[in-house]
Amino acid sequence: MSETMRAIEITKPGGPEVLKPTTRPLPVPGSGQILIAVDHAGVNRPDALQRAGSYAPPPGASDLPGLEAAGVVAAVGPDVTRWNVGDAVCALLPGGGYAQYALTHQDHALPVPAGLSMAQAAALCETFFTVWSNVFVRGRLKAGERFLVHGGSSGIGTTAIQLAHAMGARVFTTAGSAEKCAACEALGAERAINYREADFGEVIAAEGGADLILDMVGGSYLPRNVKALADDGRLVQIAFLEGPKVELNFAQVMMRRLTITGSTLRPQSDAAKAVIAADLATHVWPLIAAGRIAPVMDQVFALEDAAAAHARLESSAHIGKIVLKL
Ligand SMILES: NC(=O)c1ccc[n+]([C@@H]2O[C@H](COP(=O)([O-])OP(=O)(O)OC[C@H]3O[C@@H](n4cnc5c(N)ncnc54)[C@H](OP(=O)(O)O)[C@@H]3O)[C@@H](O)[C@H]2O)c1
Prior knowledge:
The chain is α/β, with parallel strands linked by helices. It has eleven helices and 15 strands.
């Protein structure tokens, strides 16, 4: 192995153009860590937030962007028991995915599911960890419940629709065009609502309200979400694309026994992420291997074209996941 690697760095906070190719020293795996020779790396909205300067990497994480990758284990650190050099893995990363080599904790890697390409495998971890922990653990979604996920065509949305549908929930979603709505319904949504043309609150109210809402929009959606919840409903917030501040009448929370919660994945402990990985291995990887769920792939860009990949992500023209080829 060479002592240096190709990577993409954030040269300063800003637009996609601040992503520039660079050369970095090869990372060295510490205790419990594996070094992955990255084949493909996933691109996610949090990468764009980090690039813009509003989502700093947690202490100890690489400053390079990239929260997920798939590839082959190239080296293992002390105390690694789960993987050997040469194993094909996909993994959640604390950062550093936009590079030829990336480090992660051994318990945050999963085998590449049977039948999936490396490009598909690279698109799994960030959204599947996020959806599992927020929809099924925090949000306690059960079969037969009415589930509303906003941004249905996003990486998160396409994952949430498929998983909730596979687990027997009734899935409703919002998206910004007829093409996106059709894609969401093909993935298992009972009804995709074009939010530019219809009021999601009215559609959900006619169904009896949502038992669970997964939201990334916030802002004006917050009071509308609270109103759209059924009694005992739960609202799980994973981002605030429209902003986090709003005036809200909390009496409804009390009177209708609602739960408002949320989380971010990246700052959670290694142990917490390992629990999510173990849950995914048990409950979700078999569904992928059986062909019942697959990541929705939008476009593959060369690593050096990371700026174009970010521009596409932020244009919101995409449906599903964007990945980089190393
Ligand atoms: N909390 C966590 O741990 C966690 C982890 C991963 C991602 N996230 C968040 O989850 C969201 C989805 O992530 P992703 O990687 O799947 O992103 P993505 O593919 O870029 O999807 C974002 C989608 O949101 C929709 N949208 C609705 N309202 C919007 C608005 N006001 N501004 C911009 N887009 C809007 C857009 O589709 P339309 O055309 O339909 O509007 C867009 O395609 C992001 O906000 C991300 O930060 C949170």
